[in-house]
Design a protein that fits this description.
By secondary structure, this protein is mainly β. 6% of the residues lie in helices and 49% in strands. The protein has one helix and 14 strands, in the order ββββββαββββββββ. The protein has one helix at residues 75-86, and strands at 4-8, 13-20, 27-33, 36-42, 51-57, 61-68, 98-108, 113-121, 124-134, 140-147, 157-158, 163-164, 168-175, 179-180. A twelve-stranded antiparallel β-sheet has the order 6-3-2-13-10-9-8-7-5-4-1-14, with helices on one face. The chain has a two-stranded antiparallel ribbon with strand order 11-12. Strand 8 and strand 9 (124-134) form a beta hairpin. The radius of gyration is 17 Å and the shape is elongated. It comes from Streptomyces chiangmaiensis. InterPro entries: Lipid/polyisoprenoid-bd_YceI, TTHA0802/YceI-like_sf.
Length: 192
């Protein structure tokens, strides 16, 4: 990958939120952001001059699967979780339609890196560290671990409290292709 400005997002990228639950009937869920875009400026010989920005449409978060637990996740369960995600108790998508990330520091190489930056969720901004690795041909993947309550999000509960998600979630991303953008300002990455 050469120095330059690149865009990324669906359909050549995936952004997943992985949740878990402790206790009896342990269940894990996977939520996917279907509308998001990002830009990165790559300066290979001086990573500190590189940068990453990302915007996720909160209304695009979709429950993809649930595993474990006493019963399988039904379509009705998925609809209920989506309604709760968008409502006032969790993400309040009407008031906060986007989640944004802006890097403040990048260390490492194109093959193995850490991105420190500011994540804004529900109008609250806090620092996070994103881990990643690239193959040199545009494929990039990685993860970050977040604590929901840091951003004022109460972990999801349902079924009279019998289903309660852990406060800690794992964000995973994979981009199979970075698209070169014209100029440093470029255009935004893809959205689906």
């Amino acid at each position: 990958m050469s120095d330059g400005t690149y865009g990324f997002g669906p359909p050549t990228g995936r952004l997943l939120i992985k949740t878990s639950r402790a206790g009896v009937g342990r269940k894990a869920g996977h939520i996917e952001a279907t509308q998001w875009s990002g830009n990165t400026v790559v300066v290979g010989n001086d990573p500190k001059k590189s940068s990453v920005t990302l915007t996720v449409q909160t209304g695009s978060l979709t429950v993809r699967e649930g595993s474990g637990g006493l019963k399988p996740l039904t379509d009705a369960n998925r609809a209920e979780i989506k309604k709760t995600l968008e409502g006032d108790t969790l993400l309040h998508t009407a008031k906060h339609p986007t989640i944004t990330f802006r890097s403040t520091n990048i260390t490492g190489t194109l093959q193995s890196f850490e991105i420190t930056g500011d994540l804004t969720v529900k109008g609250q901004t806090h620092p996070v560290t994103v881990h990643g690795a690239g193959d040199g041909d545009g494929m990039v993947r990685g993860w970050a671990t977040l604590t929901q309550s840091t951003w004022g999000i109460k972990p999801y509960t349902a079924f009279l409290g019998t289903l309660k998600l852990a406060d800690e979630i794992r964000i995973e991303y994979q981009v199979t292709k970075l698209d070169p953008l014209a100029g440093r300002g470029g255009r935004r990455g893809h959205t689906a």
